[in-house]
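INTERNAL AUDIT FORM
Audit reference: QA-55
Scope: verify that the stored structure record matches its stored sequence.
Auditor: D.O.
Record contents follow.
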Amino acid sequence: MSRKLVYFEIAGYSEPIRYMLHYGGLKFDDVRYNRQEWPIKEIKDSLPYGQLPIYEEDGRVLNQSIAIARYVASQTGLLPTDPWEQAKLDAAVLTIYDLIKKLATFFYAKEEEQEKVKKQVLEDVEYYYSRFEKELHAGGGYFGGKLSWADFILVSVTELLNSQLKQTVNTEYPAITALISEIHANPGVKEYMANKKSSAPVLQSQNSINMSRKLSYFNVNGYTEAIRYMLHYGNVQFEDVRYDHSQWPIKEVKDSLPYGQLPIYEEDGRVLNQSIAIARYVASQTGLLPADLWEQAKLDAAVLNVYDLLKKLVAYYYESDPKKREDAKKTLEGEIVFFYSRFDKELKANGGHFGGKLSWADFILVGAVELLNLYMNDTLQTNYPAIAALVSEIHGYPGVKVYVSKREPYKPPQLE
């Protein structure tokens, strides 16, 4: 089987993927471009969404680092078979990525602001790492009770933090330090590390009706409406708990959450955070997740592409300076055209769905389209017939149709 991983000549988001490939003894072409010479127009234009990394396998192409890492994990014994355990690891990885977003603020900060921002990042590291350490202790040294892809992600991110912050952030966390040593000692990883060039990484409805379920979020659509749609689509009974966004944070609730954030999904006493992890798990329970691992990875990539667009909406929404806010809105409008044109093309190429048949990625897109319509005060899918058809299709499913008919109209939360 021919494999190729394409990224820059740095560690960044691809290093844990490289580690896993070497850990599993999988041969692959490690293609790296010079970050200083990027973008290379003809290469960038050839990429699905103009971004690296890209993973190729026997002529198939996959983008989005998390989707790639998860797929490689499935090929190297680092992904459990149980959907709940998979979802818990998804949540761990996405939580680690939340921390990386904090590091990005330091990396892109102006020189005169770096010390102040670094102090904040170190506080964030302490917050997250104390919890990571606790999770590892509870799991016998691993996030999931045995070595998994989430552990590789944490190790690589720790190396990234150490490099960028120029200090060893894991010193006070023995379980994390032990995990780093274990992964570095693996023969394949050890050989790779010994031979690699040293370079500083750069940031660039078949369910038991007796099962109790609860989805907790705000009284808005946001990142959770797609999950509500899937649960209603699958006729899954659940408690739809909503907090008043204008009164958040509610200290006693926030303090009780694993990482202080909503949404939270509970099932028979088990708790899952991170909207993507929750959505993927619910998909596995409602017939919206295919069995084929490559097809799963393609849908993971599609979902993460949708979330890339939503990040632009967040940047616009939280910009308080009127001039910058207007600029952010123009940027968002351009990004919507960029992403929607590609989404529409993908849907048309696959019979109206991202994966050839209805899947969780389709629900995520519909939820995002409705959220963007709300904030932009427009029906943005009008010029994209495949997207418009998908919205109509999902709204037409009986469970979703009943839910939509009964819910209160959403309004964007007001800026403070």
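Auditor finding: record pair retrieved intact. DSSP finds 16 helices and eight strands in the chain.
Action required: none
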